[in-house]
């Protein structure tokens, strides 16, 4: 008789899920950093515009 080895699919599924979660977290952090950078540059641009208007 042949012995069936235990299936390793559940372990791979968990690993795959973990990989997907890591990728989603990394993408989310990237979006948040981009948003923060855009907000910072927008705020910086607004203060530059106010300063330049006062110099005219």
Summary tags:
84% helix; 56 residues; rod-shaped; mainly alpha
List the helices and strands and how they pair.
Elements: H1 9-55
Region (Disordered): 1-56
Biased composition (Basic residues): 1-11
Walkthrough of the structure:
The chain has one helix spanning 9-55. With 56 residues, the chain is mostly helical. It has a domain at 16-49. The protein is rod-shaped, with a radius of gyration of 25 Å. The model has no long low-confidence stretch (mean pLDDT 80). Residues 1-11 have a biased composition (Basic residues). Residues 1-56 are annotated as: Disordered.
Number of strands: 0
Largest beta-sheet details:
none
Shape: rod-shaped
Order of H and E elements: H
Report the average pLDDT across residues.
80
Helix content: over 70%
Question: Could you tell me the radius of gyration in angstroms?
Answer: 25 Å
Gap between N and C termini = 93 Å
Q: Which structural class do the helices and strands define? A: mainly alpha
> Which oligomeric state applies?
single chain
What is the count of DSSP helices, taking H or I runs of 4+ residues? 1
Residue stretches low in confidence (pLDDT < 50, at least 5 long) are none
Strand content: under 5%
Summarize the structure.
This protein is mainly alpha-helical and 56 residues long. It has a domain at 16-49. 84% of the residues lie in helices and 0% in strands.
């Amino acid at each position: 008789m042949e012995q069936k080895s235990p299936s390793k699919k559940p372990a791979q599924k968990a690993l795959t899920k973990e990989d997907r979660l890591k990728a989603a977290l990394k993408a989310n952090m990237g979006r948040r950093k981009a948003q923060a950078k855009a907000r910072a540059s927008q705020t910086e641009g607004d203060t530059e515009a106010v300063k330049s208007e006062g110099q005219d």
